[in-house]
Every structure is written in C-alpha cells, then in structure tokens.
User: Which sequence fits this backbone?
DNA sequence: GCCCAGGGATGCG
DNA sequence: CGCATCCATGGG
C-alpha cells in the first residue's frame, strides 16, 4: 500500500492489512462512529474523519502526525501476520480479521475507559464515556474532547453514577482523585513491569484492565488481556473448562510472546463476531 | 425472573 | 497465596 500525507490529509492507496471497520470494531476504542463508507474517530481532544473503500482510505484531520501514529502506519502488519499465521489456533481468526491494526491511543483515556469496561458491555461503555466527554471534556465545537485528568477531578461519585458506572463509580472517583499529572508523566518512562504494577495499584484496575491499558495506551504488545470472550476462546480451542484467568493469561502470553497483543485482538474480534 | 457484559474488590480458609 | 461471593446497570 502507498501512503501519501498532505497538510490535513492522509491518503492510503491499495490498503493492505488495514480495514477501517475491523480496526474500529475490534474492541480497542469506544469513541467512533461508522456510517457506510465513512467513519469519525476521536482520541483525546482530536478528531479524524475517514472515507474508505477497498482501493483507498482517506483520513482527514487537523492532526496528521498524531493520526499517522494513531493508526500505526509505521508498522508492517504483513510481517506480524506471517509470524502468527502458522499457529494452529490462530489461522482462521487472522483470515477473518486481517485488517485489524492496534491503535496507539492515549494512556489516560485508555485507563479511564477500561476501568469502565470491567464486567460491562460495549454499548453501555460507549454511553458512559460519551457522558464523561460531554459533561467534563472541552467543547471542541462539533464534539467534546475526552476529559483531561484535572477536568475529571471535578467529577463527584454522583457524577460517575449519572454516567452509568454503577458500582465502579466510587472506584473511579478514588483513582481519579489519587492520580496526579506527575504520575501520568512518570508512567511514560517506566518499564513495562513498573507500569503494570503501578496500574494494578489503582482502584478498579486488575490484571485484565492493566493489560488493556498497556496494550492500547502504551504500545506494549507482549501482554494478553483475558476477558470473558478470550476465556471462552481458550476453552473452546483447548477443549477445557478453565475459569482461572490468571492461568490463561500466563499460558497465552508465554505462547505468543512479543506478539501477544496482536494475537489477542485477532482472537477477540473473530470470536466476538462469530459466536 | 434469569443470564450476560472486554472483571475487580473483598473476605475467608 | 487460591478461591468464592458480591457488586450496579441495562439488554436480551
């Protein structure tokens, strides 16, 4: 595929391993709208409008550099797929979702989003996040930005309840109040293990949520988040009835190593779509 | 009414 | 440690 960048536009001709719908609907992002051959995607305070067809993807945005990296356009997914495709379990999932790319999203936005995601469903997660944006994020004119940490510190437990967080409201309040902007800066310089340990120390963050934040918010591809779907996948593929997600997480991340995050997304998208 | 959703916190042994 | 139970909320 050929990538051409202009002042406020990224043009991708003959896209390979880049399917806009698959990339947006594989569960890694909650702020987007798809309408036929168009999509709008939000990250932090930024927006990108996308027109796509089989032969071309055009991304229009005021933040070309940001979204070039956001859509991971420096990564060769053909190579990744080549390494993973031999795997006995993964072949079909990759055939089904070969256009998935793992977005380089914002760490704080992923942290808040995936705290909300715990024991929740995607439509409701989207609603809650939308509520937080419109009530605490900056008005950008035709949309609201994702709230910054200082903005979200103004939210009360009741606000989080109104956002539909349920029992996660108090956890969210605790974490938002405790987090400092220095923490967010420090996170960027920590090792992967240090990041993980810091994250699971926060209320509402366990192993799965921490791994999602690492994978989608900090570009750590060696983690394998195990949710209810991956749990089902694992049991189906191994013909078992394992419920210990820690065991599953360890086994799968050992099996797929540095490519765990990619493998996880192919599995998740395939099984959630088909079953 | 029951079961489920991109699970985590808590308590108990 | 490992394990069971509980947790708001909305949709099917």
Assistant:
């Amino acid at each position: 595929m050929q990538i051409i960048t202009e002042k406020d536009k990224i043009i991708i001709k003959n896209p390979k391993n880049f399917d806009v719908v698959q990339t947006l609907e594989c569960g890694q992002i909650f702020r987007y709208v798809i309408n036929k051959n168009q999509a709008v995607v939000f990250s932090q305070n930024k927006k990108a409008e996308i027109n796509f067809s089989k032969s071309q993807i055009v991304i229009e945005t005021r933040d070309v550099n940001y979204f070039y990296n956001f859509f991971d356009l420096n990564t060769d997914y053909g190579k990744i797929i080549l390494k993973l495709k031999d795997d006995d379990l993964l072949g079909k999932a990759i055939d089904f979702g070969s256009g998935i790319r793992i977005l380089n999203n914002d760490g704080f936005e992923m942290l808040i989003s995936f705290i909300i995601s715990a024991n929740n469903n995607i439509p409701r997660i989207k609603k809650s996040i939308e509520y937080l944006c419109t009530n605490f994020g900056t008005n950008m004119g035709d949309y609201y930005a994702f709230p910054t940490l200082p903005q979200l510190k103004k939210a009360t437990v009741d606000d989080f309840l109104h956002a539909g967080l349920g029992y996660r409201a108090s956890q969210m309040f605790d974490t938002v109040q405790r987090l400092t902007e220095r923490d967010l800066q420090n996170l960027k310089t920590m090792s992967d293990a240090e990041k993980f340990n810091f994250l699971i120390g926060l209320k509402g963050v366990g192993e799965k949520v921490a791994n999602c934040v690492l994978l989608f918010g900090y570009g750590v591809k060696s983690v394998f988040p195990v949710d209810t779907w991956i749990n089902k996948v694992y049991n189906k593929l191994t013909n078992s009835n394992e419920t210990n997600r820690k065991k599953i997480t360890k086994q799968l991340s050992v099996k797929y190593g540095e490519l765990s995050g990619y493998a996880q997304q192919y599995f998740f998208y395939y099984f959630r779509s088909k079953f």
